[in-house]
Amino acid sequence: MGADSAGRGVIRRAVAGQRRDVAVGSVLGACHQIGEALVPVLIGLIVDRAVVRPDGGALAVWLLVLAVVYTLLSFGFRFGARAGERAAEQAAHELRLDVVRRVLAPHGGAEAGRPPGALVNVATEDARRVGAVNMALTLGIAAVVGVVAGAVLLLRASLPLGLLVLIGAPVLMALGHFLARPLEHRSEAEQEQAAHASGVAADLVAGVRVLKGLRAERAAVDRYRATSQASRNANVRAARAAALQTGLMLTLTGSFIALVALVGGRLVLSDSIGLGALVSAVGLALFLPGPISVLAWVGAELAKGRASAARIADVLAAPGETTGGTAEPAAHAPGELRLNGLGHAGLDALDLTVRPGEHLGVVVTDPADAATLLHCLARRCDPERGSVELDGVPLTELAPAALRSALLVAEHDAQLFDGTLLENVTAAAPAGSDPHAAMDAAAVDEVASALSGGTGGRIGERGSSLSGGQRQRVALARALAADRGVLVVHDPTTAVDAATEARIAAGIRRARTGRTTVLVTSSPALLAATDRVVLVDGGTITAEAPHEDLVRDHPVYRTAVLT
Fold first, then answer.
1. Residue 211 banded pLDDT, cuts 50, 70, 90
2. How far from 108 is each of 316, 319, 396, 458, 473, CA to CA, in Å?
3. How far is CA 222 from the centre of its chain?
4. What is the pTM of this model?
5. Where do the ABC transmembrane type-1 domain residues begin and end (predicted)?
6. In 113-158, which ranges are continuous DSSP H helix?
7. Residue 484 backbone class (left: φ over 0; alpha: ψ -120 to 50; beta: rest)
8. Measured by CB atoms within 10 angstroms of the end CB, which terminus of the chain is less buried, N or C?
9. Are 526 and 501 in contact (CB under 8 A)?
């Protein structure tokens, strides 16, 4: 499916989901436009029936009718605009949820090639622009009704003027659509550049400490300046296209109204219409630029919406990192994890069985091999050779969401979120569960005591208010609180002191009693608390035994964990 057709599908979905509000808003907006068109007609009638031939009673009646029309058109605008705005905001909200759900989908892939800032831009600004299509349709339908009502009323006053409007208005609408095409392309380029700038900014902010440590601030500023300049230039080009489109439409509209006025003036001079009809015709001629300019604005909004819809569709249609798999883990499965001849990148023919309820340590001498192992266990990639099984079922046969609910791989660089400490710990916890055991196991009570507000204290974006060791403890508590049947943890204590590490080692053991746990680490304190340890050296398993035995008997292991 092409980008254009996929984008149109996103717009259709956004409009269909809000069809009731769009319909209500359109009807009320149409009533407002009809009322606006009736005002000059009523004024013309007042001139003919109560001013040219003075009649106080008739004047009072017609003024009352005019007041009623004004009241109705005012309420029509108020409630019609409210319905249209509600449709726009609700559609944008649902699109944001769709984008976020796709980004967080267990099969992944939406973030590939897109920095976080770009995804945020898609989920916010692009969703807002597509949602605004509902408001544009609401006002556009009402504007069409206004143009038709004005034309009909002009036909009643004068056939030539009415025909002129009926022929000229569609021509103006077609020209508006044609002039909006360059704006659509400029808008798409503007959004791409803005998303790229947001992504660069997010990356720089996330790595600000590293940049300062490397004294690379100037290079970072230069990089962002260049990106921001490109975004600004794209924005200027889009604004220039919008200004050109609006200016041309205003010129065409003004010329059209001038033509209507010229024809109407000649009809008055030839006594084809009276004074009241002249007032009505002039009033209608002044009224028509309003709905016609709205139609021009609608064309610009639809152009922006189409460009943003294509970007949203691109994210929603992104292929997943992992495909296939529909099986569900057995209820109350024991939690046996098995590697059968696993081979991928630097790993070669790994055969390993982690027994249900076992507390296993894994020491990998090459960090790249450790990362590969974790990716295979988390099914962020599928092994080139062999397989990984959970309770006898290959991971490739399990549905991604079902796999995530049974097996959790907590990687070393796990990120925290802006919010309270407790919200971070319970982010993946089962509903109604008590997180305090997990917090105690990870020594998070010490972190809470250092925060203003305790567990209800905010930790800042990515845990910016915490030290490295504190962030690790909160991330570990989150993994423990998730209470998965199988938990794989990678280096959870590299930034904590020895005393806290010993406490955490005992806490993990206590919190995971009877649950399968794999610790991929080189920490002696954590490894000493395991049932056995497997050593992976050169991509293969070279030894397995209790920690104490390996420290005593295996030089490679001793070097890996004690130096």
1. very low
2. 11, 8, 15, 29, 26
3. 28
4. 0.64
5. 23-304
6. 116-121, 127-157
7. beta
8. C
9. yes
pLDDT at 555 over 60: yes
What is the chain's length? 563
Positions of E strands within 462-531: 486-490, 516-520
Strands (E), 200-356: 337-344, 347-354
Q: Which residues contact 401 (CB under 8 A, 6 or more apart)?
A: 106
Residue with tokens 């798409």: 188
For residue 464, what pLDDT is reported? 77
Is there a contact between 319 and 109 (Cβ–Cβ < 8 Å)? yes
Rounded CA-CA distance 526/28 in Å is: 68
Please give, one letter per residue, the 3-state secondary structure of 168-217: HHHHHHHHHHHHHHHHHHHHHHHHHHHHHHHHHHHHHHHCHHHHHHCCCH
Lowest mean pLDDT across 61-65, 250-254, 403-407, 526-530? 250-254
Report the amino acid identity of residue 12. R
pLDDT tens digits, one per residue of 452-470: 888 888 887 777 778 888 8
* pLDDT for the residue numbered 115: 75
Superfamily of domain 335-560: P-loop containing nucleotide triphosphate hydrolases (3.40.50.300)
CA distance 10 to 13: 5
Residue 387 confidence (pLDDT): 93
Residue type, 221: V
Q: Is 505 exposed, middle or buried (0-12, 13-18, 19+ CB in 10 A)?
A: buried
Q: Which region among 246-255, 361-370, 374-383 has the lowest average model confidence (pLDDT)?
A: 246-255
Tokens of 136: 């544009």
Higher pLDDT, 51 or 24: 24
User: Do residues 313 and 10 make contact, with C-beta atoms less than 8 angstroms apart?
Assistant: yes
Q: Give the DSSP H/E element, type plus range, for residue 409.
A: strand 407-410
Give Cα separations from 170 to 147, 157, 175, 176, 472 (angstroms).
10, 21, 9, 10, 65
pLDDT of residue 231: 67
Q: Tokens 């991509």 appear where?
A: 539
Whose tokens are 């569960």? That residue is 433
Q: What is the number of other CB atoms lying within 10 angstroms of the CB of residue 351?
A: 12
* Alpha-carbon gap, residue 38 to 458, rounded angstroms: 58
Instruction: Give the chain's count of helices (H) and strands (E).
Output: 20, 10
Alpha-carbon distance 379 to 401, whole Å?
11
Per-residue pLDDT tens over the stretch 152-175 = 887 777 777 777 766 776 677 677
Q: Report the share of the chain in percent with pLDDT over 90.
A: 37
Measured in degrees and rounded to the nearest 5, phi and psi for residue 399 equal -65, 135
Residues 180 and 299 sit within 8 Å (Cβ to Cβ): yes
| Structure tokens given for 380 | 């962020």
Please write the tens of the pLDDT for every residue from 89-134.
Answer: 999 999 999 988 888 877 777 777 777 777 888 888 889 999 999 9
One-letter amino acid at 54 equals P
Residue 446, classified by CB atoms within 10 Å of its CB into exposed (0-12), middle (13-18) or buried (19+), is middle
Residue 198's pLDDT band (cuts 50, 70, 90) = low
* Cβ proximity of 357 and 428 under 8 Å: no
